[in-house]
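Kindly review this protein for my students:
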Amino acid sequence: MKILLVQPPQFGKPGFNKIAFVEPLGLEMVAGALLPRHEVRIQDMRVDDRLEAAIADFRPDAIGISCSFTIDVYRTRRIAKTCRNSGVPFIFVGGLHASLNPPDFEDTSIDCVVVGEGESGSRDLIAALESGIDLHQVPGLVLNTAEGQVFTGQRERTKDLDELPSPARELVSGKGRGRYFFNFWKPLATLETARGCPHRCNFCSVWTFFQGRCTTKSPERVADELSRLSERYVLITDDNFLLSVKRAARIAEIIRERGIAKTYSFQARSDTIVKHPEIISQWREIGLHHVFIGFESLDEEELKAVNKKNTVQTNEEALRIVHEQDISVTSAFIVNPGYGHKEFSRLREYIARHQISVPQFTVLTPLPGTDLFREIESKILTKNYEMYDFLHSVLPTRLEPREFYQEFASLYGSAYINSGVLKRRALPLLRGLATRRLSIGHLRRILHSAREFADGSNYLKPIMDKSAGNTGEAG
């Protein structure tokens, strides 16, 4: 069969897609599971939005659309409608949001939702379509029928990630791959080495999606995938790369033994870093240049409220350990809608005092399907999914909206525009330009993005547009 896999376009001003634009790894992994039995193409609409032309050229038997992010729901449904109007026989949706919230896709343009891991789900679905098997007999699907949605039952999770085929990265090749970046890292590849997280932060949908269980690839499999990457920069996508410190150490050993030369970024919890500072040193020696740590809050009570099970002191100690290795740290903070001027000022001062050069700020957002959503659903002001971008509040704010967003924008302004961060990074930026790893156009894009994040009016405009009669279905 001929299968077209579609990544929805991105939007937003400001938007995190302006500073991190990564390959559609999820679709590449699904494609890897469908090949070589089926003919597969990937249409990344963030790069090329000519969907109808792609359908006319390829004439697929089925189209699968990725909807991992809540803000992509309306776009996913519109894409499905375009596909249906173009005569595509079968249309399915998958991804994190779709799996946790199938009712959002009860639509005549969508035949079913693949719940859970996409590789096995899509493979079984397409095999059934090809053989004419009744889809009610295929576990892990939510079917849209004339009588309503029907769940076909749980599908068993992949127990051994080493058994999965490699991502079909060749389907997004040539100039297309050169578009992907992470801040000033370009060209960029992404790599998944594990799934799930043992922790239960109530704002997080990841552990819910993976049903509270964790699975990992072996160190040998991870090194094999790394050795096939042509890109210098590698962003490890695991939500908790140091899930097993022993495994992470062995991966580093094999990378050194094989002479794999890359520059790495991964995400880790601060308590693991504090308990095992040696792992940061070991990875620094093989190319670790950036670590993402979820600080979340400066307040112990707020950390308890989101079930983080960590402390401010541990966060600060982890920051010291990583900085001592001359590694860049993105410290992520969640801004509570209840913040007033005092709380915003305290956060700005904290960033400056601890010399956090790459902070990230997001607004506390109860994503559908999470514990947090269920806990405070009655307080949510809007179900317009395009507001669930972590940059707008869907909860009542203590300050007037204009004041709240001016304060929120000032966090980015003080951190990136007024602090001289870009000046301190001038030498590596010049090196990147000299070696042509970084273009003038890309540098301008990042600088423009920084200014967008620091302009409070950019956060207000979408809210005013929505309140002027927009139901959320419009782009």
The chain has 19 helices and 17 strands. The chain has two domains: 2-151, 171-467.
